[in-house]
Amino acid sequence: MTNKTNPLLHEKVEAQIQQALVLAGEGDLTGSETLYLEVLEQQPEHPLALYGLAQLAGAIDDQEVKEALLSQAIGQLVDITDPEQKSLAATWLAELAEVLFKLNRPSDAMHCLRQCESLIAENLKAPLVS
Q1: What are all long-range contacts of 110-118, with beta carbons under 8 Å and residues at least 24 apart?
Q2: What's the confidence (pLDDT) of residue 80?
Q3: Three-class SS of residue 113?
Q4: Residue 78, φ and ψ in degrees, nearest 5
């Protein structure tokens, strides 16, 4: 998720995502969407920007778009080893399962929940870092 070649770009992206969250919280979904899209122009598969857009789709009850964006965001965390990112992926998978239930796709939802359970189990087995 970090940009190692340009740390200023990383800081700018982080600030844009924080501002997008603030705007969404204030009800400015269009402003929030604009910022997330700007992030994606700079870093095309940025998981937090994709997730933010998924949340906006959920706010307008567009479950199909939310599913696609959540799936794309989760896909960016596929090869994760960091326990915090595994936890994030598990949370997003649980949210995706809820969307799939709403879309009347219970078997797909159950698959997401099994993946979520697997990530949680992996985290429970991981050694604690002090």
Answers
A1: 116/90
A2: 82
A3: helix
A4: -55, -50
